[in-house]
Amino acid sequence: MGAVCLITSSILTLNFKRIFCKVWQTQPVSDKDPTRTTAVNQHRTQHSTTSFFSTHPSSTTSLPPPPRAPGQQDTTPQPTTEKPSHHKNHPTTIWRQSNMDRNFRVGPDYSIIDVVGEGAYGVVCSAVHEPSKQKVAIKKITPFDHSMFCLRTLREIKLIRWFSHENIISILDIVKPPSLEEFTEVYLIQELMETDMHRVIRTQDLSDDHCQYFIYQTLRGLKALHSAAVLHRDLKPSNLLLNSNCDLKICDFGLARSAFMGEQEATGFMTEYVATRWYRAPEIMLTFKEYTKAIDVWSVGCILAEMLNGKPLFPGRDYHHQLTLILDILGTPSLDDFYAISSHRSRDYIRALPFKKKKPFGQLYPNASALAVDLLEKCLTFNPKKRITCEEALRHPYLASYHDPDDEPDSPPLDPSFFHFDNGKEQLSREQLKELIFNEIMS
């Protein structure tokens, strides 16, 4: 549901003026204050300029330079023309004001502005919280036609409410339904983010400074997830939201699962695994003995590769084509890596393929820095046990300008019962899941 996740219609083009990202100041809708001070924020310079993003859906605006540490060299390139998009932009639905008011039953505290994204079972609009005049995003979810949608909604609500982190989207409020019987829609009030990484990559070339800062923030948020033993499982550019500060937040936790899955849970891991295959780790398709946090690190590597030249690295058309593209670049697995694959069928498939030599990432990305290429290679290691971890990636020299071990917090560990509804031992009915969602919202 990446397209639903608070995507706006703003399309970014590079702004090469040396304007530091202004500090975005908002008043929280609820008692939970989503803003905190970090070491990175200390590098920012406040400006009284207007927002770098226009609220008009068809306008093009500017991506400001990322904040730099004191003494960091300015490597932002000179102005270029806007980059043509490799893909059509996500469709944006614009509804009449009266229609939006009827369809978003959120009460008088919120005035609807625009519909800014939609997906399989939800719509997102921008709105104003009238008491505070804060702009917010309202995510309307209608999950009750399918138990799988109910599961994803419950995961999303529980996980986002659990994490309190600058690089993870937060829930400011949830509209409480009048009763369980009248409970037909879920309304999440969230931070309004101007755009997402997918839109940025499709419309412009990113400087090395931007790549560093965005990957750093992605890994910083991912570290918080992994420290709580949570796998995101659906990291991709459209699930990385951006605002006018160049702040990045991970969103869409509908596929997230515990890293400590039992045998029954692991067996059903692929049943629901419908994430975009382009960012899917090879062990997911080849049925390794276990699925670990390394699957998210692989996705980060795919995102970094896409930032470096604006194109997906492994745009597979199907399962077989996806594996072919991966092996075309990584080469035939070594014997150690080959025998790490538990599925005999997968081994037979790879054994039947012609030998392939590894392609150097430096040749694939000749304009990227040596450090960027080194991190990319470590994230895209075939064997998950040999792949760099999130913590190791944060310490990589490529991110040295931003890395601060004192400002990369872990999250509190989740109670083992947190995923009790999702343990694979029994399939809950839609009505049971609906009641769990209702209780979660009302708690």
CATH architecture of the largest domain: Orthogonal Bundle
Label the structural class.
Answer: alpha+beta
> Which spans have pLDDT < 50 for at least 5 consecutive residues?
1-61, 75-82, 84-102
CATH topology of the largest domain: Transferase(Phosphotransferase), domain 1
- Please indicate the percent range of residues in DSSP E strands (runs of 2 or more): 5-15%
Tell me the major beta sheet.
Answer: 5 strands, antiparallel
Highest CATH level, the class of the largest domain: Mainly Alpha
Beta strands, count: 12
State the end-to-end CA separation. Answer: 25 Å
C-alpha Rg (nearest Å) = 22 Å
- Can you tell me the number of structural domains? 2
- How many helices does DSSP assign? 15
Strand order of the largest sheet: 3-4-5-7-6
Order of helices and strands: EHEHEEEHEEEHHEEEEHHHHHHHHHH
Overall pLDDT level: 79
CATH superfamily of the largest domain: Transferase(Phosphotransferase) domain 1
Shape: globular
Structural commentary:
The protein is an alpha+beta fold. It folds into two domains: 97-192 and 428-442, Phosphorylase Kinase, domain 1; 195-407, Transferase(Phosphotransferase), domain 1. Helices cover 31% and strands 12% of the residues. It has 15 helices and twelve strands. It has helices at residues 39-42, 97-103, 147-162, 197-203, 208-227, 263-267, 282-286, 294-309, 319-330, 335-339, 344-351, 361-364, 370-379, 390-394, 430-442; strands at residues 11-14, 60-63, 110-118, 122-129, 134-141, 171-174, 186-191, 195-196, 230-231, 240-242, 248-250, 257-258. The chain has a five-stranded antiparallel β-sheet, sandwiched between helices. It is globular. Mean pLDDT is 79; it is low at 1-61, 75-82 and 84-102. Belongs to the protein kinase superfamily. Ser/Thr protein kinase family. MAP kinase subfamily. This is Mitogen-activated protein kinase. Pfam families: Pkinase.
